[in-house]
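This section describes the prediction task in plain terms. A model, or a person checking by hand, is given the sequence of a single protein chain and must write out its three-dimensional structure as a string of tokens. No templates, partner chains or ligands are provided. The sample shown here is typical of the held-out split.
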Amino acid sequence: PDEIVFNGNFAYITNMNNNTITQCEVDSSGNILNCKNSGAGLLSGPGGISFNSNYAYITNMENSTVTECSVDSDGSLSSCKDSNTNLLSWPTSIVFKSGFAYITNFNSNDVTVCEIEGSTGSLTNCNIGIALFHLFQKEVTRNYARINIGTLLLQ
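The expected answer:
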């Protein structure tokens, strides 16, 4: 297992080595029960999984893609498709904020930012939002050390 994420009463575990997502029920005591294959297809080294609305998004590190799936009422993942997102290089995680998806890229050391198409959940108009190697600046003085973290600007 590589990552575990919760959505509603379900836990989802990415399994990079066998290209699957395990879906489990989570009871009120926090027990993880009744695990099974989620049904997600088109996976190639799944690393990160995140949910936005009724969609699951899975980063595929081995082929540098994101798989988008519908989340069914029983928690299973279906109707999976390749997001056709460019600008990815070994994507490791994906998060959402205010109508945008932010995808971290391990190999290129940057973040891809995409708009989320409301009715379909598709990722569109992707751009490199920030190069991380320019993000951190260290300032060390005699009495303290401070790290300034740059601001992500969407253009």
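For orientation: The first strand starts at residue 3 and ends at 7.
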